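Now for a typical sample entry:
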Amino acid sequence: MEECVFLHGDLEKRPYRLEEVGLIKAITGIGAFQMDPIWLVKMRSKADKDPILKTGGLQVKGGFCAIIDPIQHDVIVKIHWVGFAVSNESIRQVLSEFGEDLEVSNDKWTVAGFEHATSTTRVVRLKLKEGVVLEDLPHLFKYGGGTSFLWPRVGHRFA
């Protein structure tokens, strides 16, 4: 997967044709992947992949086509049972052995009239260290006299 990218096209612009993507010279393989608007594309080399990833997306048939690295190093996790007095810095310290946190925030309540209330759940976006995978993160961990439960995001939803 080192040379591969996902192309996630606009549903409204289907069907797509290979020549509309504009990457033919750099592609050595392409095919639908799991769902209709998602394509797995193999580039000639990692050197061809990197500049394309940096663009973040392409315009195809007047619609946005996202370019996504299948080797995902950023993950989103929810940490439950976090006391109100626990700082985001404490969360950062606990997770620092697994990666660098990019963002820590309180989860939001969605109950009408209660959106202002603080939650005991934190949402953390984490850039995993080299060699660390999502499965390496502990589901339960202790810190400062408390125990928290880590819930990883898998795909487009939390598992």
